[in-house]
Amino acid sequence: MKAARLLLAAALLAAGCTANAASSSDVDVVIGYQSKTINTVTAGTLLRSLGYFERRLTELGKRDGKRYHVTWQDYSTGAPITAQMVAGKIDIGSMGDYPLLINGSRTQEFGDGRTKLIAATGYNLLGALNMVVVPPGSPARTLADLKGKKISASIGSAGHGTTVHALQNIGITPDDVHIQNQAPAVGASGLQSRAVDALGQFVAWPGQLVFANQARLLYDGSALKLPTWHGVVARESYADSHHDVVTEFLRAQRDATDYLHEHPMDAALKVAAATKLPPEVVYLYNGAGGMVTFDLPLKHPLISALETDAPFLRSIGNIKRLDLGAFVDDRYLREVYGPAYDTAVSSLDNPAPVTGFDPACARAVTDPRTAGELWLAGETATHPAATPACLLKAVAHAGKPVRAAYVPDAATGTRWFADKAVWVRDAGGALLPFTTEDGARAHLAAHPGAIVSYAQAVEESR
């Protein structure tokens, strides 16, 4: 009996060792992302739909004998992703610049919960991804008209920061307005019901509401000239123990970024299908020459913007201490890019500008600062326009309904819907687009001219 018991114990021990060996060859990775925050799509929605990360992990498994299991978790904001990372339940996450700072600050309080900022996803160097919109019939024409009014914003978000900074620049303090702390969807609903007078939010809410004729753009964040961006964070302890998983994620993100640059329309349609956002809105931000520049390197202006943003978050109690130098970590990107990283990190050009031949003006499109695009009904490819005048000419002679027309603001370059822009006819007869009436009037204060309607601008271009 004693011998039998010894044999049984040995067998159970061997079985346990075998089970442990099997489990040690299984590696889980949980990704937190925000499907509707569409300048994170190369590390979220688009990357997931393309399957690049899973494919790379399969190849990694062939080399190291492990089995990798990916779980994608979708959230509406960055805050719950940070909470789950602190709890050790999300390994890699993507979020906006303000949530990134909060993530770094909160996780640095915990020894094993620290995170590292390892890559960018999408950015706008002037800050145009954050905007303030009002109802279409609102009497407000400038930010100054919001004094004493109710403004919906998500406290601690980049949209909130832009709204407060913009108001302070014209002498209006947070005490002079009534900030309503609301999720974007709640604020959008409140705007439509007139429960609030304005909404200060991040991509893609302003474009979505304006496109649907549910709002009018009052303030373009590019007026701040402060970069706004989104990035990728990883739990330090996970990255240390699964270094190859993190580098393969960044390689897959780079693959997805290349795909978006090479197939901007197809990428926009994939994201629209996954998020239920209008394709025209997704393409406004993510298309060729879009409002969002997609690139992974952690560029100096982006890190400098974090340094500028941090004091605001401290002032409202959202962050305590943050060692930004310890938080930012480009080691993984340097491994992925190799010697090319130093060149990539110094470039500020959009890797995917509008190019091609402009059929309306019969000329090549060469200047990204003036280039636009026309998307006609029933077509899945856009027509490039070299200048705003060429775009208007193309619309006037389209011969079929216009699905969307995109044009850059004459002063800031912010890409916007041509039919939602404010158009100015200058003294020489040139027609210039601006995202806001405030921007148009600022131009008119220095140059003779007059505001004209979009319909009138198109008619004059026939």
Automatic annotation (TrEMBL):
Keywords assigned by UniProt, alphabetized: Signal
Alphabetical list of InterPro entries matching this protein: SsuA/THI5 (IPR015168)
UniProt domain SsuA/THI5-like: residue ranges: 129-267
Signal peptide coordinates: 1-21
Protein's UniProt name: ABC transporter substrate-binding protein
Gene source species: Amycolatopsis eburnea
